[in-house]
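Q: What residues go here?
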């Protein structure tokens, strides 16, 4: 596929600086791009590498030196490059239909141009939208509903009655709607609490590999529109995840937690159950959240606290041994001073007391 620089600029809403007629055949990084390819600069710290790249053109922000390269100038180079990468790598979709080796239950409704690969298992009364792709070894339990343009990669399991919206992508090995972790103490043992709710995944969600979104105990576990969930993430039962959230790998969200819109959870963040995280909050990696988080708050550490305060505390940590010694010396000195003051006070009382 070939496009001129001007055509690509129109595609991403940018402006050409240099030769608009340069033909671009692909993309590459600053280090690996070659003639005929376009690269990008998203972080100004790497601006010096532009001078060494062999790319024919570059995507960058206004005011950044292109070192003589023709460029597409945009507000968000990273986003523009993502759009270009999508353009150059996306191929026309071809539907495969129901292939030999797929197992289809009774009363299943399958939309147009669906592809169901060998080894996929579809339960009874399942509804599959248009242009859905079920890769090998996908399992859909009874009464599952899939919207249009859904892609489920191999090993994905969607449990009974769960619902998945349009344009959802779920990667290998993820389970949607497994039982929530609910047990009632029964003496020295535990009695399993039936998990009879469902999971609803809204439109344009993407979930990474080997993640788990547990079904609700009674009602709904919900993942909001546009949210992106990384690999190895645990979403507990009855959680309500807002729209356009980012949840990075190995994060764990305990049951009945509510995340607002545009919440960001770094890797290995742990959130205790029954908490509320407000819109736009950001929690850095490895943080432990044990209380509600206000909208827009930025937290880090365990227990999680405002990030600026955590940084100030971190600056003190290396000096704690010295501070401990200093405090110990101060304590000894104070004890001596108090002893002298007490002695002086006793002398004064003795000298002034009547005979």
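A:
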């Amino acid at each position: 596929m070939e496009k001129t620089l001007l055509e690509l600029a129109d595609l991403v809403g940018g402006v050409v600086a240099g030769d608009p007629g340069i033909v671009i055949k692909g993309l590459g990084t600053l280090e690996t791009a070659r003639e005929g390819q376009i690269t990008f600069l998203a972080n100004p710290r790497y601006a010096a590498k532009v001078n060494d790249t062999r790319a024919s053109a570059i995507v960058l922000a206004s005011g950044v030196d292109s070192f003589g390269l023709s460029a597409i100038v945009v507000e968000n180079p990273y986003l523009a490059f993502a759009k270009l990468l999508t353009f150059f790598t996306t191929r026309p979709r071809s539907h495969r239909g129901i292939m030999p080796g797929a197992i289809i239950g009774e009363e299943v409704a399958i939309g147009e141009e669906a592809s169901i690969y060998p080894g996929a298992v579809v339960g009874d009364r399942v509804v599959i939208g248009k242009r859905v792709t079920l890769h090998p070894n996908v399992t859909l339990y009874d009464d599952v509903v899939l919207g249009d343009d859904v892609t489920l990669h191999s090993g994905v399991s969607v449990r009974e009655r769960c619902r998945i919206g349009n344009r959802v992508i779920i990667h290998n090995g993820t389970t949607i709607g497994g039982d929530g972790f609910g047990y009632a103490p029964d003496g020295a043992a535990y009695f399993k609490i039936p998990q009879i709710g469902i999971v609803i995944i809204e439109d344009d969600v993407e979930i990474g590999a080997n993640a788990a979104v547990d079904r609700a105990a009674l009602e709904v576990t919900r993942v909001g529109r546009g949210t992106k969930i990384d690999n190895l993430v645990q979403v507990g039962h009855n959680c309500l995840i807002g729209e356009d959230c980012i949840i990075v790998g190995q994060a764990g969200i305990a049951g009945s937690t509510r995340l607002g819109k545009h919440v960001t959870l770094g890797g290995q963040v742990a959130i205790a159950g029954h908490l509320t995280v407000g819109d736009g909050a950001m929690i850095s990696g490895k943080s432990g959240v044990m209380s509600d988080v206000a909208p827009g708050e930025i937290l880090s550490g365990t227990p999680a606290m405002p990030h600026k305060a955590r940084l100030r505390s971190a600056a003190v940590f290396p000096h704690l041994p010295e501070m401990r010694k200093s405090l110990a010396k101060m304590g000894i000195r104070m004890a001596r001073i108090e002893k002298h003051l007490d002695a002086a006070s006793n002398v004064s009382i003795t000298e002034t007391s009547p005979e």
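A: Context that may help when evaluating the design: The CA atoms of residues 152 and 170 lie 5 Å apart. The longest strand covers residues 57-61.
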